[in-house]
Structures are given as structure tokens and as C-alpha cells.
Design brief:
about 375 residues, alpha/beta, TIM Barrel, 8-stranded parallel beta sheet
């Protein structure tokens, strides 16, 4: 990159939103794309050796930051250091825009982590950003557990931040949605909590069922009203029944995160709600919770966007595998599920594709018979990995 901020990337296989340039170049000036062309550039540029040049990936739902803030059960890491470590892992996975998914709930005897975690982590992200420690663009996704007694007030304290881009309405009450089988929920918490006893789990489940009965209906309405007041896109979560689908439609939900059945996904998709599924689900070949497979929805043409959820590297791997899983997705369509479509779903229309005028967010990816590797990452024209 020269002093004027001009950069040329050449000899790359460039994936555009609707086509692939088999050998082309990109010219960047002051952090934005100014030209995309075939063949050789007008002047010498950085030779990418025929590797893929893809738009930087856009991640709307990852709670992987929790693995950095709490690397072991009951171990709390320094918050800013955790954010910086997480940012580096996200960037080197090819993600240049991330919505950090923060849990907005406080629960007595919470076995999953620290109460007020969303407030604590959003503050740490602010400090890391202000200190120039972050490589990529960070926004916030408030994951609101609807039955929690204080969730509306806690969300109200965060939603007016300028970096909040999504609010999701979650309900992990035993017997509901993703965990209709309480045994699956029991297995999930045993693995996540470092060994809760059956008695402790019984107490937690009873408390959550009680909270749902007392607070869920009013809290749901309050959260929808808050999101509408601030113009923040809404996401439903783990839609399963026709009632869930109808509720999502009535409340003008923009994104349906991880519907658990093909029927729910089809109804949501038919009503213009973007269907998000897990990239780890595609890479693993199925859902760890026993719900519908990402590949099944892709083969039906119902997959709009993907999320890495708990494995950052899975987003790129899944996108590149998607054309082999479904003939409804060529390479540009597959990449749209992890770049252009998620960006537009949360109002980030300045990124997500390689076209003149957009942000210069790119990843250079090398493919071999053994896998894929991210070789370089640029965020706003600046090389960050």
C-alpha cells in the first residue's frame, strides 16, 4: 500500500456476488474498492498466486467470546485481554465484521457464567476499540433470554448503544424449542458447566420453568417494543411450531436463527424471513441437538445465511462446501450466505461484496485437497492478518 492509501491485489480468483472472475485484480484507495477487473491490473500489484479473493465474512451470531472470557468453568479471564484474543481468532478465520453475541440475562445461581456479562463485555469491547487493539469491525447482538425476570430492563440499558445491530428473542426453558427433549438440555449443561449434579440441574430447570410462567409473555412484548422503538432488527431463535412461526411473522422478525424443523424453516422463508443455520451443523453433517440439518435446508433452497456460532473457522469451511451439498448454491450464492446477505440483514450495506464503492474487506484463501487456509485478511483496506 502506498502513502496515498492505494493498493492493488492481482492474480486472484475473485468471487463476486453473482459471478467469479477466474483471474482478476482489485484496486483499493483509502479503504474502499475503486476498481475490479479481469486479467492483469493497469499497474503492478500484490500477486496472490491464483488464490481465492473473497469478501470478508460477516458473522451475526457467535458467542465464542465466552470461551475467552471463561476459558475454564469458574475461571474468569481479564476482559480486555479476552476480547483481544477473541478478535484475533475471529479475524484469522476470515471474518472482518462480527456481531459479538452477548447474553442479556441475570439468573440467581447462574451456572453458565457471570451475571451482567453483556454489560461487562460491551465495556471491554469499548476499551479495546478505543485503544486501537482490534483488527476488525465489532458490533453487538443482544441475546435476550425472554423468561429472565430482569431481561427487559437490562436490554433497555444497552440497546441505545450505536453498535447494537440485532436483538434476538430466546427461550431455553426446558421442554421448549431447541431443547424440547429435557435430556438433551441436561447433557448440554453438564458439558458446559463443568459437572453440575442432577440435583443442581433439577433446581435450575424448575426455576426456569417458573420464570417462563411468570415473565415470558410480558417480557416478550417488552423486548419487541424496545427493538421497534430503536429500529433494531429482531431475530427469533429455535422456531419449532406453527405458533412460533406465526409469532415471528406478526412481530416482523428479520432473521430466524436456527429453526429446528424443515417445516418451520419453509414457512419462515416463504414469509420473507431470512433463515440462518449453523455452519458447524453443515461441517459436522448434522445438528448436535438432533434438530434439522443445515444441508437438508440447503438442498430445499431454504438457507439464506450461516453463522459460525461456536466454531469461528466453520463459517468459511461451510461456505466453500455448500455448492457440493446443494445444487441450488453455486460459489457466489454460497459466499453470499456469509457476506452480503448477513450484512444487508442488519443494515450494513457498505460491505459484504467485492464491488466498486464498498469497503475493502477481503480474505485471501488457499485451497488444497486437504482443506482451506486463510492466508491474508484486509479490513477497510488495512491488512490485519
Amino acid at each position: 500500500m502506498s502513502d496515498s492509501g492505494t493498493m492493488i491485489l492481482a492474480n486472484a480468483r475473485i468471487v463476486l456476488a453473482e459471478a467469479v472472475i477466474e483471474r482478476g485484480y482489485v484496486v483499493v484507495d483509502n479503504g474502499h474498492i475503486v476498481e475490479v477487473g479481469e486479467g492483469s491490473p493497469p499497474e503492478r500489484g500484490q500477486d496472490l498466486g491464483g488464490d481465492l479473493l473473497l469478501p470478508g465474512l460477516v458473522e451475526l451470531h457467535t458467542d465464542h467470546i465466552e470461551a475467552h472470557i471463561q476459558p475454564r468453568p469458574k475461571v474468569q479471564w481479564d476482559a480486555v485481554s479476552a476480547v483481544v484474543s477473541y478478535d484475533a481468532q475471529i479475524a484469522t478465520s476470515g471474518i472482518t465484521t462480527v456481531l459479538d453475541s452477548l447474553r442479556v440475562w441475570r439468573e440467581e445461581a447462574n451456572a453458565e457464567g457471570v451475571d451482567g456479562q453483556a454489560e461487562m463485555l460491551s465495556g471491554a469491547i469499548d476499551r479495546a476499540r478505543a485503544a486501537g487493539l482490534l483488527r476488525i469491525d465489532h458490533f453487538l447482538h443482544l441475546r435476550c433470554e425472554v423468561p429472565m425476570p430482569n431481561v427487559v430492563g437490562d436490554t433497555a440499558g444497552l440497546i441505545n448503544r450505536p453498535d447494537v445491530r440485532l436483538v434476538s428473542l430466546m427461550d431455553h426453558t426446558p421442554g421448549q424449542r431447541q431443547f424440547q427433549d429435557p435430556q438433551k438440555l441436561r447433557e448440554y449443561y453438564r458439558g458446559k458447566s463443568g459437572g453440575m449434579t442432577d440435583f443442581e440441574l433439577d433446581e435450575m430447570f424448575a426455576r426456569r420453568i417458573s420464570n417462563a410462567e411468570k415473565y415470558a409473555v410480558d417480557n416478550y412484548k417488552g423486548l419487541v417494543e424496545l427493538a421497534n422503538r430503536y429500529g433494531t432488527p429482531l431475530a427469533s431463535h429455535d422456531d419449532t411450531t406453527s405458533e412460533h412461526v406465526e409469532q415471528a411473522i406478526n412481530d416482523r422478525v428479520a432473521i430466524a436463527e436456527f429453526p429446528t424443523t424443515a417445516g418451520a424453516a419453509a414457512a419462515l422463508h416463504a414469509n420473507g424471513i431470512k433463515v440462518m443455520m449453523g455452519a458447524p451443523n453443515l461441517v459436522r453433517g448434522g445438528s448436535h441437538s438432533g434438530n434439522v440439518a443445515t444441508a437438508e435446508l440447503a438442498r430445499a433452497g431454504l438457507l439464506d445465511l450461516m453463522s459460525s456460532d461456536y466454531v469461528p473457522s466453520s463459517l468459511l469451511i461451510a461456505a466453500l462446501r455448500l455448492p457440493a451439498e446443494s445444487d441450488k448454491y453455486d460459489l457466489p450464492a454460497a459466499l453470499r450466505t456469509v457476506s452480503k446477505t448477513p450484512a444487508e440483514a442488519v443494515g450494513l450495506t457498505d460491505r459484504g461484496e467485492i464491488v466498486a464503492g464498498k469497503r475493502a474487506d477481503f480474505i485471501q484463501v488457499h485451497q488444497s485437497d486437504h482443506g482451506v487456509a486463510v492466508r491474508s485478511v484486509w479490513s477497510g483496506g488495512r491488512r490485519v492478518a
